[in-house]
Amino acid sequence: MRAVPVGVFIAVVVAIAGYAASPWLLAWAVPKYLESLGVDASSFEFSRPGASQLRIDRAVLRLGVIELTADSVEITYDWRALRHGRVREVTVAAFEVAIGASDDPTVIEIPALWSLIPADRVVVSAFSVENAVPQASVAGKFDFDAAQAHAVFGVESELLPVPLDGRLDLEPQGGLKVSLTQRGSDVQALSVKGIPDGAGALDVDGTLDITGQTFALIADLAGVDGARGHVRGSLEGRVPWPVGDTSSLDQVALTAQLSVATTDALPLLEGDAVSGTFSLAIESGHMQVEAPTLTIAARSLTWAGVNYVIEESARFALEVKAAMPLLPNESLTGVTASIVADVALSLASDDPAAYANTTSFTAHVNVDATADRARVAIDEGAEFEVSTPTVRDVTVEVRSPLAFDYTVTTGALEAKDVALTVRTPELELLDQRIALRSARLDVATLSWVANRLQASATAQTRASAKAVPVSLVLDLNTAELTGSFEVAVASNVTKPMLKAELSGWRSSYDLDRGALNAQFRGTFAMPTTGVEVQGSGRIALADAVMHYDDTIIAGLTFDLPVTLAAAGVSAGPAVVTAQQIDPGVPVTDIRLTVDVRPERIVVADVGAELLGGRVSIDAIDFDVASVATSFGVQLSEIQLKHVLALEGEDIVGDGVLDGTLPIQVESEGLTVTGGRIAARPPGGRLSYRGSMGAAAAPGLDLAIQALRNFQYESLNADVDYALDGQLTLAVKLRGRSPDVEKGRPIHFNLNVSENIPALLETLRASESVTERVQQRFSR
User: Fold this and answer.
1) Beta-carbon contacts of residue 410 (< 8 Å; ≥ 6 apart)
2) What is the Cα–Cα distance from 273 to 269, expressed in whole angstroms?
3) Does residue 114 carry a pLDDT above 60?
């Protein structure tokens, strides 16, 4: 036998030794090689390789927080493929991926993983992926090679209400099909198929049927808890294949037709239902959405903790168009939206905390928006109606088209030149039931940024160029319902203002003419207990004429400071003057000081001219709660001839009177007890010109004869005035008549009784209508 060469023997021995040591050698060499590819750590349990097969009992790889574990891996190869660095097939009995918790997002680079397994085909009989936070697991099997890929998998997660089952069939040269269903359901929520068109793209055709718990899952992920409904439809188009970087999105051309129905999906609403159809188009890197028939209905609305029932007749119909880039830049350039809404909304609440019992809104609304701005336009004729416990059936109508501009970056809502008409069929004001037929509110500017609403406006109670304008400025914190306001009025009144401004005004008092100026500014808060207002201002009248019943106040002038606080309204102190008050007996040159407090009214330094003399009152302190007070009236230099003129032409005379009238005011009226009037020395003359008739009592003719030419030396009268208006005078006259008994002294005791209201009524009636109109309106 020829001896074996030593070199050959050594080679055989080395080969046998290497084969025997191959499991340990591979377990050392492969991790070293993977570390050079970026794998943090790995370990392998190899069996001895065969001529065409290698078995790995267990392999573990770690890449950051990702750990991959494979059991019973069989690698099939041939020597020709191995020379090119590839194997024919990798079969894995079980493959697990565990992703640990990390502050950084988990990234799995598929090309990098594929490069770790350079095989022509990979078959995983069972795989699982476990994610730590949030908890999620994916389990299934897959089979892929250079021509195709097939995967069947299931997904469970704490984010999912139910498990999902999916299937993926991928053929880079032959098509793509994806389907997704709820576990245990035969309805495919998503089914998409793509067929190559031979020009580097897929022709896509698919359907959607997202309902039940799958819909609830998507709603939960969107932050809408408890929503139910469905999205159904179809899609078709072309997409580039294979998909490259994001620039390939410009080559996508897809359209979809969808129908949507949801319940309990909208915040603030209860029992809400949304339904409609959508069309979606993707082309040249942009997406367009149109919803020509979208309707919204609900049973109730909750706002600021108050629940409002929505009437069944309410409707909210929308027509939506929107466009946006698939990959918007930071400024969202290219995003546009258009919404046309037909709204008829009616709300009602019996909650005591509700600011309104019923509310309704009817309008046609247009919304045009971009990424940074939106314009809301409301057509002319839109109406808003509200009823509160104190104000019933107020209607606000949009008098001309109005627009609101919204800036997304600042959250500012702005509007200009808003013209509104306000109508109230019945409103109680100052004990009057009035109506506003065509009141107007013209908002010059309105700005709402965050929780701050600012507005300036002009209001008037009727649609007339001669209506009294009221200037308004409002600054409101909409979150806290607090704010400040300013009100100003400036008008030259030429006819009864309240009657002209307030339809249905029937009160016995009014401002007939004069220059009116008023300003008021203050703060307010609207807690659940009501509205709290504080502020201050002034009310001024110049050369004004007012009337109360048939009593006329002419030449009225004052500048009255007004304060409103929690305790009530205060006004004054201020000087009030008037040229004349005419209750039947003219009172002229009136001057007084008035000071009004919530509980008391003080009128001081009262002075006026009456019957040729003066009337003065030191002070009147009036208790509002008890409606009772007392004060003294001083009379000086009253001309007797003017007093006697009140009784007609039967008696005339002269003289000067002084006196004091103690007056008591009660809730039923005023009285005078123990008043005193006396003539100044040396007295005066009286002359009675009437006749007593044939039936005069015996001896009375002597008295009448004496009074026809009576020179009195003293005249004293005790005055009493009762609640019924009856004036009683106990008159004592001392003097003589040259025509009776040679002018001897004569004493008269006369009791005179007169109903003052009837007398004043007679005196007013004696004036012609023309005279009284001239008093009220002439200058």
Assistant:
1) 449
2) 9
3) no
- Reported as a single tens digit per residue, the pLDDT across 359-402 is 998 999 999 988 788 899 999 999 989 888 777 788 999 998 98
Mean pLDDT of 511-521: 94
pLDDT tens digits, residue range 562-608? 999 988 899 989 999 999 998 878 899 999 999 999 888 999 999 99
Going by C-alpha positions, the residue among 190, 153, 189, 195 that lies closest to residue 170 is: 195
Angle 656-661-662 from CA coordinates, rounded to 5°:
165
Distance CA 94, CA 97 (A): 10
What is the average per-residue pLDDT within 108-125? 58
**Residue 468 near residue 461 (C-beta atoms within 8 A):** yes
Pick the range with the lowest mean pLDDT from 100-109, 473-482, 752-761.
100-109
Task: List the structure tokens of 309.
Answer: 């029932």
612 CB-near residues (< 8 Å, 6+ apart)? 637, 638, 639, 641, 642
User: Token digits for 383?
Assistant: 């109406």
Q: In this predicted structure, what is the pLDDT of residue 558? A: 95
Strands 89-99 and 121-131: parallel
Q: Is 81 helix (H, G, I), strand (E, B) or coil?
A: helix
The answer to whether the peptide bond before residue 242 is cis (omega within 30 degrees of 0) is yes
- Residue 717's nearest CA partner among 616, 615, 638, 614 is 638
**Residue 112: which pLDDT band, with cuts at 50, 70 and 90?**
very low
Query: Is there a contact between 215 and 231 (Cβ–Cβ < 8 Å)?
Result: yes
Concatenated DSSP letters of 584-617 = SS-EEEEEEEEEE-SSEEEEEEEEEEETTEEEEE
Q: Which residues of 101-129 are buried (b: 16+ CB within 10 A; e: fewer)?
A: eeeeeeeeeeeeeeeeeebebbbbeebbb
CA dist., res. 260 & res. 279, Å (int):
11
Please count the other Cβ atoms lying within 10 Å of the Cβ belonging to residue 145: 14
Alpha helix ranges (H) inside 86-211: 110-116
**3-state class of 72 per DSSP?**
strand
Give per-residue burial for 607-624: e unless 16+ CB within 10 Å, then b. Answer: ebbbbebbbebeebebee
